[in-house]
Design goal:
Two copies of one chain form a homodimer. Chain A contains eleven helices and no strands. Chain A is mainly α. The radius of gyration of chain A is 21 Å and the shape is elongated. Chain A binds a DNA duplex (30 and 30 nucleotides) through helix 3.
DNA sequence: CTCATAAGGTACGCTCCGTACCCTAAACTC
DNA sequence: GAGTTTAGGGTACGGAGCGTACCTTATGAG
């Protein structure tokens, strides 16, 4: 009773309309209470429907969670352009840090854990959250630095491009959940990323 | 009924003996079936006791899981000494990869997810699995390379020392669960770690 | 108008966590 | 060695939550 979504008339939604209502309800649940509280009953109630309609579309709770997260996080990644390699790197790292330290980041971590045994769901999540798109951003960023003469030519390597994000993720894994302080970000850039990208040519 | 541990006589275990039996049972459950199957009832049955005795010692299932894991994984970390920086780095990375790709690594990942909301448990786990001890190993390894003239003096930096393990963890996060191939390890060493450690002096 | 399809409603089985209660064996005290 | 405290054993239960079954009822297509 008392569904949160508008179910004004006695009309009965079908197909895409109902699917969208379910996804909205699940995403809202994720946003406000997290994955642990996104129970099937709550989602069904919030969407003004019942679990049957959900299970006809998603085989399990984790699948709905991933779908709702993808529906929720449609963030497009803008590659910063500050003019310097250091500025670009810091901007990209700070953006990632903001995302990961937000409640949305906690949801993402929970989902990654919940989908650990489902390769299909994992790929979906990786596409959405810091997957290939982020690596591509770092590569273009390095490429621009190479063009400016700020970095060695061989630095535009995928493995090199993945270093800052890996270190940031490491901070989240090592520390508990709070935000990573900005000093850590600058240290990653100044002590690892810049030396690696600049000095890399000498022994290639 | 039919406890797996020897409960031959009518003797009733107490204190440390019982605690040890519970830990053994939980560790065995972790080893053979994983954390998901380590239910409190199963552990109690396998230890030949009941849940009461468990909950008097550990407040929740996650706490028991962490304790059992620490009991199970008493691996001491030996710092390799192959004579070259590259050999040492590869050896350390391969050892970590072996651990993480084993069933024990899967248990560790499950536990990390389960203990995500308990800072105390997280610190316990980090001590056990690739925490400060691993960073220390990498630091000594770099220190020896510096002494041999294989690395720049400023390379013995904690942040630098954490790079290879962070990249390895990144591989596990990005890919699903299988083992990380050896080519990735050599690429981490050759494309990132060695250039970083060797060439780092030029702009310090 | 008829009818297949899909949504709604509801109840249920199952697993598992964590707790409560009472009984009894072991250890400690004197 | 008898009494007392402590802690383990047995069992049952409440509650949450996932996933399923079954039937009823509205919707839209032919």
């Amino acid at each position: 009773m008392a569904p949160d979504q508008q179910r004004g008339g006695a009309t009965r939604r079908r197909g895409a309309a109902l699917e969208d209502a379910i996804l909205r309800a699940a995403a809202e649940e994720l946003r406000t209470a997290g994955y642990a509280s996104m129970t099937m009953d709550r989602v069904a109630q919030r969407a003004g429907t019942n679990k049957n309609a959900i299970y006809r579309r998603w085989p399990a709770r984790a699948a709905l969670g991933v779908a709702a997260y993808c529906h929720l996080a449609d963030a497009e990644l803008r590659v910063p352009d500050t003019g310097t390699l250091r500025g670009d790197a810091l901007a990209l790292l700070r953006a990632a840090n903001a995302t990961w330290s937000s409640p949305q980041g906690a949801v993402l971590r929970d989902l990654l854990a919940a989908a650990a045994d489902d390769p299909g769901l994992l790929t979906l999540l990786r596409e959405q959250a810091g997957g290939s798109s982020t690596d591509a951003a770092w590569l273009t960023l390095i490429g621009r630095a190479v063009a400016r003469g700020e970095a060695a030519a061989g630095a535009a390597h995928p493995r090199v491009a993945s270093v800052p994000m890996a270190l940031l993720r490491g901070e989240y894994a090592v520390r508990g959940l709070p935000e990573v302080p900005d000093e850590v970000l600058t240290e990653i850039v100044d002590e690892v990323f810049l030396p690696l990208v600049r000095g890399r040519a000498i022994d290639v």
